[in-house]
Design goal:
By secondary structure, the protein is of the alpha/beta class. The protein is built from 6 helices and 5 strands, in the order βααβααβααββ. A 5-stranded parallel sheet has the order 3-2-1-4-5.
Length: 143
Amino acid sequence: MEVKVILLDTDFAFEYFSGNESALAVINVHRSDFIALPSVVMAQIIRACRDKRDLAKAIKMAANIPIVHINESISEKSLNIIKNHYLSNNAEIYDSIIAATAIHYSIHLATCNTKDFGYIPGLKLLEHSVTPKRRGGGLFGMF
């Protein structure tokens, strides 16, 4: 299956940036034209930084990856996901924004937490078998 654009969830982004071979292979196997980060994922990556050195590394790692920003349509879709799925699936705000972004642009989402997204109608999850390898430390072991 060829996927033109892959949107990275926070956990998958951590695996990709930390060099997890499985995560890198997933991107290569699908021969995507490019990967992208929702702005909320970039914000979560920045928040995981312990100091200015970590921050500089995070910014450098993501420098060539397009950041997809929230617009009114994404905000509305996100709010609908929360309204429809908070009580039944404990939908999280960040996850709803990430899912709404993928739905809005009709692109695949790469995540290691399918339970956080599998219940959302219209969301295309990228199938893979990436197992998270990070173990604590700055940016969840990336630095």
